[in-house]
């Protein structure tokens, strides 16, 4: 029988990734005694081998994307723990999307927001190491190579270490931040009626690298933007790294004519033709590495997890809550995974303060407040794939963005563009969805009115084309129309010959 170590004055955080490191540090700064258990070895010291299979690719966070997009919600959490200025020294600001259209040289920059707004590229590993080190300095006890085996109804958490030694611990509470395949969530399902859904999308992703310029050692592309090659059913993006490289992520279906696995099965010749056909302007930047990387790097899945509840308090004494991917794994198309996880930490901290550190009450309130937001960002992330892969290349999409920004400049509090709400505010994600739907409805209605007005104006111009003042009116109409629809050809539309047909 395993003896139980009772630590009634201590909370457990399971999972030492970004969200776990952030929440452990927050709790310690708030005055809690904190013990963290992490399944992996201390990756600040060890070279962790990549685990095989989808589970390994999704849970071994130190080996996933080299960089992440840090935006306002995440920055607020860093500010809370006093690390904002230190982290912001490490980031590369991205002012907008650099859109590479097929068959065209160069790119078009689409700003994210105002001149002072940017999304920030930050190194995953460096940020994770910083959070863990700061948590340790603050007094958090971190136990590596400790695998959660069970959580009982009376709140006893059982762990097995690398030597097979079993330890049972009875803490104040258990907070699970252990990723999309959470062991804490699995144990929660044994303590309550957990409604859980994991949905894989048809697309996967493959990571490639654009190296630094071999002659200058500098970036080969403009660094202060998120580069995107939209190709409708698939796309490639590139984020800058501090070492002057870019991490490229190719998102595409697994199968089909442009599928990741289909292309790979065709061998190196197939990969070469695929890039020549779809991403020709990017080929010189890769310096030949893209073919070997495509063949050797794994094609990884993308998934969304939804569940209810996010917390449980049993009559026997267990108190458990989930944060980050353990509560709401999302696809990466809004760059909000880390930011949403960090905001989970902020919201739960705010709930603890409002409840005077009554953990049972706090996690119930956190569940009620935060779960709708988790569903909101899941929906937003899924929907944003279409915007990134298709709409960024559309003139009408650009027109809508301009109208959005214009209305925001007139009514900065009541009209906020969707991307601005997601990335540059702390408006709850579910409220973002509702506000965006209302704004779209207004724009669509206004668009219909404008279209009817345009038809009426066209009819008037057609009539006036026969009058002595027709030329002046037609020219004025043409200028107005073209300012809204620059890609539409009007030449000859209201000519006398056209009028007679």
From TrEMBL:
Tell me which EC number(s) this protein carries.
1.14.13.9
Keyword NADP carried by entry: yes
Q: Does the keyword NADP apply?
A: yes
Entry GO CC: mitochondrial outer membrane
Q: Which cofactor does it need?
A: FAD
**What enzyme class is recorded for this protein?**
oxidoreductase
Substrates-to-products reaction catalysed? L-kynurenine + NADPH + O2 + H(+) = 3-hydroxy-L-kynurenine + NADP(+) + H2O
* Keywords noted in UniProt: FAD, Flavoprotein, Mitochondrion, Monooxygenase, NADP, Oxidoreductase, Pyridine nucleotide biosynthesis
Swiss-Prot/TrEMBL GO biological process terms: 'de novo' NAD+ biosynthetic process from L-tryptophan; anthranilate metabolic process; kynurenine metabolic process; L-tryptophan catabolic process; quinolinate biosynthetic process
What family is this?
Answer: Belongs to the aromatic-ring hydroxylase family. KMO subfamily.
User: HAMAP family, alphabetically?
Assistant: Kynurenine_monooxygenase
Q: What is this protein called?
A: Kynurenine 3-monooxygenase
């Amino acid at each position: 029988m395993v003896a139980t170590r009772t630590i009634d004055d201590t909370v457990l955080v399971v999972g030492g990734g970004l969200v776990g490191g952030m929440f452990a540090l927050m709790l310690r700064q708030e005055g809690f005694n904190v013990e963290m258990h992490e399944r992996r070895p201390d990756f600040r010291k060890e070279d962790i081998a990549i685990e095989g299979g989808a589970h390994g690719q999704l849970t071994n966070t130190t080996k996933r994307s080299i960089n992440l997009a840090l935006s306002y919600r995440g920055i607020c959490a860093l500010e809370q723990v006093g690390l904002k200025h230190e982290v912001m020294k490490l980031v590369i600001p991205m002012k907008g999307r650099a859109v590479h259209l097929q068959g065209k040289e160069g790119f078009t920059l689409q700003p994210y927001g105002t001149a002072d707004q940017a999304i920030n590229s930050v190194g995953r590993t460096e940020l994770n190491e910083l959070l863990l080190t700061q948590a340790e300095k603050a007094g958090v006890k971190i136990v590596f190579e400790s695998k959660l085996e069970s959580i009982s109804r009376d709140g006893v958490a059982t762990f097995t270490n690398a030597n097979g030694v079993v330890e049972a611990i009875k803490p104040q509470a258990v907070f699970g931040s252990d990723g999309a395949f959470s062991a804490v969530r699995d144990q929660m399902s044994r303590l309550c009626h957990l409604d859980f859904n994991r949905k894989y999308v048809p697309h996967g992703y493959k990571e490639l690298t654009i190296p630094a310029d071999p002659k200058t050692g500098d970036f080969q592309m403009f660094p202060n933007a998120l580069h995107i090659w939209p190709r409708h059913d698939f796309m490639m993006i590139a984020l800058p790294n501090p070492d002057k490289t870019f991490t490229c992520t190719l998102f595409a279906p697994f199968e089909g004519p442009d599928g990741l696995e289909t292309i790979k099965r065709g061998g190196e010749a197939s990969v070469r033709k695929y890039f020549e056909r779809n991403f020709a302007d990017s080929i010189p930047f890769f310096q030949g590495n893209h073919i070997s990387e495509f063949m050797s790097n794994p094609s990884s899945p993308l998934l969304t997890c939804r569940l209810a509840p996010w917390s449980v308090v049993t009559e026997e004494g267990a108190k458990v809550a989930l944060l980050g991917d353990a509560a709401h794994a999302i696809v990466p198309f809004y760059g909000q995974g880390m930011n949403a996880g960090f905001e989970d930490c902020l919201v739960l901290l705010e709930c603890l303060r409002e409840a005077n550190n009554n953990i049972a009450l706090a996690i119930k309130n956190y569940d009620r407040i935060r779960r709708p937001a988790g569903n909101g960002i899941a929906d937003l992330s899924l929907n944003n794939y279409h915007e990134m892969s298709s709409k960024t290349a559309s003139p009408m999409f650009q027109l809508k963005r301009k109208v959005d920004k214009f209305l925001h400049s007139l009514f900065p509090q009541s009209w906020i563009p969707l991307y601005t709400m997601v990335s540059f505010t702390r408006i709850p994600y579910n409220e973002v969805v509702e506000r965006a739907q209302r704004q779209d409805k207004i724009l669509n209605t206004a668009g219909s009115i404008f279209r009817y007005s345009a038809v009426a104006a066209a009819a008037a111009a057609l009539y006036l084309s026969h009058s002595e003042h027709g030329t002046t009116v037609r020219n004025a109409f043409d200028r107005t129309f073209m300012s809204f629809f620059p890609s539409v050809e009007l030449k000859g539309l209201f000519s006398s010959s056209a009028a007679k047909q």
